[in-house]
């Protein structure tokens, strides 16, 4: 097993819900082998408060998360990224910065729980569903043999994760 820590960036447009949840989930489940970050193409400047119970349930301080621009991760002082995942369809279609080091990328689009309207219970359920779907994708990713798989096969598997989990989620 390699001692390498892989840096993973989750992108969304507003960086307030899905990408924040993915950052927390990856840092919790990655067991020190992965360091996750999140950012947005047009961050709205605040983390959605409905992410709080999930983030805190994973053992993190909610105040340690912030909505930030993806530019923070494209400069010379940014961490060297190994993987970048877009988690919303808008960010996937936007022109991204040039990422140093040619990280592997994939689109793991999910519905935006912040767009859900209804009772507090309905909104909480949407956030919980999003966290569950992200967790499923992240666990599949964490089980890939990163140290022994060639780059092209790995890229294919990263893209297949979204397809595989979408089919599983539709069957539920």
Per-chain topology:
Layout: E1 6-12, H1 18-29, E2 34-40, H2 52-57, E3 83-86, H3 89-93, E4 104-107, H4 120-142, H5 151-171
Please provide a written account of the structure.
With 172 residues, the chain is an alpha/beta fold. The protein has one domain (6-171): Response regulator (Rossmann fold), CATH 3.40.50. It is built from five helices and four strands, in the order βαβαβαβαα.
Instruction: Label the overall shape.
Output: globular
The CATH H-level homologous superfamily: Response regulator
Low-confidence stretches are none
Q: What is the name of the CATH topology?
A: Rossmann fold
Under CATH at level 1, the class stands as Alpha Beta
SSE run: EHEHEHEHH
- What's the domain count? 1
Number of strands: 4
Q: Identify the CATH architecture.
A: 3-Layer(aba) Sandwich
Task: Name some characteristics of this structure.
single chain, 172 residues, alpha/beta, Rossmann fold, 5 helices, 13% strand
How would you sum up this structure in a few lines?
39% of the residues lie in helices and 13% in strands. By secondary structure, it is an alpha/beta fold.
